[in-house]
Design a protein that fits this description.
Elements: E1 29-31, E2 37-40, E3 43-45, E4 50-55, E5 58-68, E6 107-112, E7 115-125, H1 136-139, E8 143-145, E9 147-150, E10 153-163, E11 165-171, E12 174-177, E13 182-183, E14 186-192, E15 200-204, H2 208-211, E16 213-217, E17 220-224, E18 227-235, E19 240-246, E20 249-255, E21 260-265, E22 270-272, E23 280-285, E24 293-299, E25 302-308, E26 345-346, E27 377-385
Parallel strand pairs: 1-4, 2-5, 3-5, 4-6, 5-7, 6-9, 7-10, 8-11, 9-11, 15-17, 16-27, 18-26
Antiparallel strand pairs: 10-14, 11-12, 13-14, 17-22, 18-21, 19-20, 23-27, 24-25
């Protein structure tokens, strides 16, 4: 986003509002490539959420990059003015935990869930607060934070400079402060190897379905052990309808996912953020990844072959993801194949209230499902350690 007048300089204008306008762009350079990619001598300025972000990226070189935060922030704060109508991208920053307006400003650089990222010289600058340069510039507090590393590995930073920010860098709860790195007009960090800030993984056994309690550090990713079935079963998810674009034409198609065999019921991971407290209740949901489906589409003399990544089962039984309200709006209610019998192909029977959940109880064994859970979900009370 441009920050200079096209026709005339108004630096010495008594009333700069005569020619001043505000332009709003949601985000700037989003890098998701698996690389290798080299970005040399690039600049990105004045967008609302971030100027540079690597998200699920690998093998990226950023050399001599430069950013400026929007001059008009924090009036309004990010993500305004698009809060109500803007479309979210995966990896967009969340400002809901900010305690002050200077925290709700654009990031200069974010490295999120990425690997092998090398930054060789970066200048990340925040010159104004609501178009006013002083006193925030001299006090180095035009905004709170400008550079973040989260959930990433093998990140190396060489020669980073900032201006007008309180926190030069944040990574895994570790903060480099401006007051510790000020070197003349700007801060300077010669070498920075952020700690690998992948969240801790908390493994929970199947007995959690009996105790309904767990204890984990925060933040963390909770991985729940799959719950074994008395015998394998085969499930056919049924037809799945979705819409795809070919050229300027939107086509609705129905695909048939492949049947699959289960001898254990896996669960979705639970992401625990740093803002949660003891006693928080989470719900567990069964979740089985389905094989991708290849489709060939023809519209307006244009033929396109697509590989579709399908929603997990049983969520796929709710239709396309934009129609979901809760993961259990339309959940299968099925019994397992009795021991000693061949696997049974299940063709989505309508839900009933007849099937009940019970465990084969044994003090020396983890619980096993004798029947499908009625809703394939359960509430768990979480307790978090340091």
């Amino acid at each position: 986003m441009a920050d200079h007048d096209n026709n005339a300089s108004t630096y010495y204008e008594t009333d700069q509002l005569i020619t001043q306008i505000s332009l709003y762009g949601g985000r700037s350079m989003l890098i998701e490539s698996q690389g290798p990619c080299w970005f040399c001598g690039t600049g990105s300025e004045h967008t609302i959420l971030y100027q540079y972000e690597t998200y699920n990226a690998k093998n990226i070189y950023l050399g001599h990059i430069q950013t400026e935060s929007p001059y008009w922030q924090p009036a309004p704060v990010a993500p305004e003015p698009f809060n109500a109508t803007g479309r979210l991208f995966p990896g967009d920053p969340n400002f809901s935990l900010c305690l002050g307006d200077t925290c709700k400003e654009a990031w200069g650089l974010r490295i999120i869930s990425s690997e092998n990222i090398l930054v060789y010289s970066a200048g990340l600058y925040s010159w104004f607060s609501d178009y006013v340069q002083q006193p925030c510039l001299s006090e180095e507090d035009c905004q709170q934070s400008i550079f973040e590393v989260k959930g990433s590995e093998n990140v190396a930073i060489f020669n980073m400079f900032t201006k007008g920010v309180q926190e030069v860098a944040t990574s895994g709860g570790y903060i480099i402060e401006q007051e510790d790195t000020q070197m003349g007009f700007t801060t300077e960090v010669s070498v920075f190897f952020p700690e690998d800030s992948l969240p801790e993984v908390c493994y929970i056994g199947t007995k959690v379905h009996d105790t309904l309690k767990m204890q984990c550090p925060s933040p963390a990713v909770v991985v729940i052990e799959p719950s074994p079935l008395p015998s394998p079963i085969v499930i056919s998810p049924g037809p799945y309808k979705t819409s795809l674009e070919v050229g300027s034409t939107t086509t609705t198609i129905t695909v048939q996912p492949n049947p699959f065999t289960l001898d254990k019921v896996p669960f979705s991971n639970i992401n625990i953020t740093g803002g949660v407290t003891n006693g928080v209740v989470f719900q567990t949901f069964a979740s089985v990844d389905l094989d991708p489906v290849t489709v060939t589409l023809t519209a307006a003399q244009t033929t396109s072959t697509r590989i579709l990544t399908l929603p997990p089962w049983p969520q796929i039984t709710n239709g396309p993801s934009d129609t979901w309200s809760t993961p259990t709006d339309r959940i299968l209610n099925q019994t397992a194949t009795p021991p000693g019998q061949p696997p049974q192909v299940i063709e989505e029977p309508p839900p009933t209230d007849d099937n009940v959940e019970k465990y084969l109880e044994d003090d020396d064994k983890d619980p096993v499902w004798a029947f499908w859970r009625k809703c394939l979900m359960k509430e768990i009370i979480a307790c978090f350690g340091d």
